[in-house]
Each structure stands twice: as C-alpha cells, then as structure tokens.
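Standup notes
- DV: blocked on the single-chain target, sequence here:
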Amino acid sequence: MSPGKAQRTPLRPRVGPADGSALGAVLGIDPGRSGGIALLHADGHVLHAWRMPHVRGQQQEFDREAIAAIVAGAAANGCTHVVCEAPAHVRIKGRLHAHASAVLAECAALFAGLSAAHGLVWETVAATTWQASMGVGSMPGTDTKTRAAFLALTIWPDLLSLAKSDGEVDA
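- DV (later): unblocked, structure below
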C-alpha cells in the first residue's frame, strides 16, 4: 500500500456478542450531546447514521421521543444488539466535569432502558477497547477522533454522505 492511500477492507469484528447470541443489525451509540447513532447491518455496512437528537431550540435536552422512535424502528427492522460507548468521566483542562459526565450517563441510561423494552441485547464498551479492537491507533492523524474518522471512512466510504459529525462516526 502506498503512503497516504487507504486500504479498503470489509468489516471483520474481532469480537462477537458477549452473550453468544446470533448477531442481527447493530445499533451503535456514541452517547452525549454531540454524540451519534449508527445502524449497521450484520454484514457490516452502514444502514443509517443520525446525530444525537435534541429538542428543537434546546441543545441541552435530548429528544427522547426521537430517540425512542430510532430504537423502535431499529428493533422492528432486524436489530438485535445495541452497543454503547461506556460513559466515562469527562475532564476539561484536567478537571473533572461532573455535569458532562452526568449527561453521558443519562444518555446511556435512556438507550439501555429502550433496548430492554424492545428485547435488544445491551452492551457497553470502553472507548479504548473498541478503538484498539478496530485498529484506530494505526490510522493517520494526531488525535483519536481524527484516527477514528479516518478508519470509519476507510471501512465505510459511504459514511461520508451519511455522517455529519464525529459522534455519528464514533457510533
């Protein structure tokens, strides 16, 4: 492979569902206000990507109805698993930011409840775990967000037309 050229490879998850169940479509969640949601077919191609829905004019409040509709629609169309990046403690300029950490936990809890209501398998994964499993560190870029975006667009070139934010790419 020549420098600067991405090699296109099919998605080959290095880990399967933790519960050993059959894998259908997967709803991936990057929780938080600037997060995103992605629906992936079992074969790995992206079916849809959304920015995290917010109440119109109120960026501080999640649109629970829109989120519920996304989860219900995914469940009705073959989704079997929801995988959410585990909420972490947020540090801003080295200081713990309790409010931002609480927002991540609130978002994850909303998805966990909706997943249970629809009979979907719920899993959380630490950011460092999924990034290592997918090989984010081997991608070009100076930070994790850039590397993850490069990897996602390498695996799913059509994601560029679907994703509008790093939250959707991370999802």
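- Follow-up: The first strand starts at residue 25 and ends at 30.
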